[in-house]
Design brief:
Chain A is mainly alpha-helical. Chain A has 13 helices and no strands. The chains are: A mainly alpha (280), B mainly alpha (315).
Chain lengths: 280, 315
């Protein structure tokens, strides 16, 4: 067995220091958001504010300010688009993966390969024609179009995660339910759906993070529309502020709070999802 | 081999040919679960969003389409232009520099943190959670924090002045700016690569390391000869993922420098965006995207090859 020696203690201290240095930008961000602009420029970045103020957040979010409308609608459309994509990815992805992993037809294997290859295929090339196609269908600049586009892009990941899960699950529970007289819809809804919740959690976390944080696709499809997601709102807002770091820090913190709150609650699931899920 | 193939074929075609009767005869122990058409909505949506658009992108790469109206076939003219334009060659090199630098530094730091936090330390669970934290926030938000850190009056220059060095114009310097972009990319992804390596390290038996220690192997020798060969699959995955992610870099560049100063941090993904949406040259943008696509595809295939190698070893 490993013993906790003096050397381990040294490694522990060094690692704690390394982590502290790594997290320094978060500290600078938090301290800066609580200072006034002159205080940010005059005091060391790591020093706590002498007179902490939440004036920056008030200035950003109060209905009277010019920016608050954009930030609130940005939060709302990020939430709607992320939630909608997660729901569609769970429903369509699990149904497809289930049909593929329980069917013995050779078509199901071919369909599965199509999904697997799509994981590897870089999305850059398709983005431009996707924009033209979506524009012709009226899907550009509205949240429903974005939900469909994100779902289509992330379905391979969702199908891959669910198919892995179903393969390890085995059909025994479902067969027992069929023998007891359940039809295939009841089997899926009553037996499979509750059983697959660990895979659903992973799909929701990975897809949710990707959609919530996505900037490239959102910039192309939503820039300048009333449904800009938070990263796009932040981008155009910061572009309009010239070195007003107090406000920049505050808008950055506001954009981080939802995701960090989720992370605080489910950090284990986040880490597991990344360690296992993105290997595909 | 041939025999086996015909046998499976016979079974599958037989099963398909008289499906209803064949299935019901086996029904006692083989029940039908789900229906094939359940996969259809996902398949159709994915095929449109990914396959149809990618094929269309490959097509437009050989045209001079502006995004609206008529277009002409121009053959390989777009590609000739790409490789004759010094700025575009420069952005190709910048992209490769960032991808390879990202691969090296993220993997080195990620592996160091993974080795330190694998076992033994009392605070390891808390530290893992903290090191992973940057991964979950958006790259664009992270870039704005760093933009302040690199600012001329920012904390980095404050430190330089405090230790008696000259202030640097980090983001405005043609040589330093690309390193700034690289630092932000690496910083945000150390935690991601760390958990990839931790998953690999969890499969290394403690006994093996102890046996090597008893045989007199020092820490470096133990790592080199025992641990590293056993986490080879994680190394393959982590290096390929970072390389691909590095080739696609967009958010950090847009937020930190927008390609400047004077194209010193211009990357392929940013160039694709600017050509197609700022200059309305869809065909040319698609040609650039095709170059990026081929680059990424080559490295993705390398990853497929590396992971297949693993499963053979495992079997």
């Amino acid at each position: 067995m490993f013993r906790y020696t003096k050397k381990t203690l040294v490694i522990e201290i060094v690692t704690i220091l390394g982590t502290a240095i790594l997290l320094l930008p978060f500290w600078i961000l938090l301290m800066g958001s609580l200072k006034t602009l002159p205080a940010i420029l005059a005091t060391p970045a790591v020093a706590p504010p002498t007179q902490p103020t939440i004036e920056n957040f008030i200035q950003l979010l109060s209905p009277a300010s010019a920016s608050s409308g954009n930030i609130w609608t940005g939060l709302a459309s990020s939430a709607v688009i992320t939630a909608g994509s997660i729901i569609l990815l769970i429903v369509l992805g699990s149904l497809a993966a289930y049909a593929i992993s329980r069917s013995t037809s050779r078509w199901s294997r071919r369909a599965y390969y199509l999904f697997l290859v799509a994981i590897v295929l870089p999305t850059q090339l398709g983005t431009l024609p996707l924009y033209i196609g979506a524009r012709n269908l009226g899907l550009v600049g509205n949240p429903w179009g974005m939900i469909l586009i994100y779902t289509g892009m992330l379905l391979p990941l969702s199908v891959f995660l669910y198919a892995n899960f179903f393969r390890n699950l085995g059909p025994e529970y479902e067969e027992a339910a069929v023998i007891d007289g359940a039809n295939r819809y009841q089997v899926f809804w009553r037996i499979v759906f509750p059983l697959m919740s660990p895979a659903t959690g992973t799909v929701a976390i990975l897809a949710g993070l990707i959609v919530w944080n996505d900037f490239f696709t959102a910039l192309i499809f939503l820039n300048g529309t009333p449904y800009q997601t938070l990263p796009v709102v932040m981008y155009s807002y910061v572009g309009s502020l010239v070195s007003q770091w107090n406000l920049i820090f505050s808008v950055v913190i506001i954009s981080m709070i939802p995701i960090l709150a989720f992370y605080a609650f489910a950090q284990k699931k986040f880490i597991q999802g990344y360690a296992g899920g993105l290997k595909g | 081999m041939t025999q086996m193939m015909t046998q499976t074929e016979a079974i599958t075609t037989g099963g398909r040919g008289r499906s209803a009767r064949g299935r019901s005869r086996r029904g006692a122990y083989h029940v039908k679960l789900g229906s094939w058409w359940w996969a259809l909505p996902a398949l159709v949506l994915m095929a449109f969003v990914i396959y149809v658009t990618t094929v269309a992108g490959g097509f437009f790469a050989f045209t001079n389409w502006s995004g609206v109206g008529a277009f002409q076939f121009t053959g390989i003219q777009n590609f000739v232009k790409i490789f004759q334009t010094p700025e575009l060659i420069g952005s190709l090199w910048n992209t490769l520099f960032l991808a390879i630098g990202f691969l090296i530094f993220t993997n080195v730091f990620g592996l160091l943190f993974a080795l330190a936090l694998n076992r033994g330390l009392k605070t390891r669970y808390l530290l893992r959670t903290l090191v992973f934290m940057p991964v979950v926030v958006s790259p664009i938000a992270v870039s704005y924090i760093w933009k302040f850190i690199f600012d001329y009056n920012g904390p980095l220059n404050q430190i330089l002045v405090a230790v008696g060095l000259q202030k640097q114009n980090w983001l405005a310097s043609p040589t330093l700016a690309i390193w700034c972009v690289l630092i932000v990319m690496v910083w945000q992804n150390i935690g991601f690569i760390m958990v990839t390596y931790l998953a690999g390290l969890a499969t290394v038996p403690v006994e093996m390391e102890e046996a090597a220690a008893i045989d007199g192997a020092g820490p470096w020798r133990r790592f080199r000869s025992v641990v590293l060969p056993l986490i080879q699959p994680s190394v393959a995955i982590a290096t390929t993922l970072t390389l691909i992610q590095g080739l696609r870099v967009f958010d950090q560049v847009v937020a930190l420098t927008n390609g400047g100063p004077a194209g010193a941090t211009q990357t392929l993904a940013l160039e694709v965006y600017q050509q197609a949406f700022t200059y309305q040259q869809f065909g040319f943008g698609a040609a650039l995207a095709l170059v990026l696509f081929v680059l990424i595809l080559i490295f993705s295939l390398a990853q497929q090859w590396a992971t297949r190698d693993r499963s053979e070893k495992g079997a």
